[in-house]
Specification:
single chain; 114 residues; alpha+beta; HIT family, subunit A; 5-stranded antiparallel beta sheet; 2 helices; 20% helix; 21% strand; binds guanosine-5'-monophosphate
């Protein structure tokens, strides 16, 4: 049996996280190593490795995640903009193999990313 990911352990309450939003489908919490004044991680509670593994049945869930991210950004007043991104696979820098979106705000972001 494979080890649960760190994010699965957060979902299960086995390790603590600073949770900023939760509903039946998803969870958002502060990143442990923030790369901006606000750096949140938004995850589905369903165990999905990455955006690559999304199935047709996950379309409503994927849309829900986007709207939750937008709602958090509005609620926290990211009026100057924010960045929402997901790393898919090793070359993109994915370290935790549970689908997640980074929601970053509070400073200007360069383009292209490093
Ligand atoms: P990835 O590189 O997979 O796209 O991003 C994983 C993110 O999860 C990183 O930004 C990292 O700081 C964050 N992270 C890793 N372990 C933990 C943890 O135990 N708690 C929290 N809150 N964030 C974590």
């Amino acid at each position: 049996m494979t080890e649960p990911t760190i994010f699965k352990r957060i979902i299960d309450g086995d390790i603590p996280a600073k949770i900023v939003f939760e509903d039946d489908l998803c969870l958002a919490f502060e990143d442990i190593n923030p790369q901006a004044p606000t750096h949140l991680i938004l995850i589905p509670k369903k165990e999905i490795v990455s955006i690559d593994e999304l199935e047709e049945e996950d379309v409503p869930l994927a849309g829900h995640l986007l709207l939750v991210a937008r709602n958090i950004a509005k609620k926290l007043g990211f009026d100057n903009g924010y960045r929402l991104l997901t790393n898919c696979g090793k070359e993109a820098g994915q370290e935790v193999m549970h689908l997640h979106f980074h929601l970053l705000a509070g400073r200007p972001f360069g383009w292209p990313p490093g």
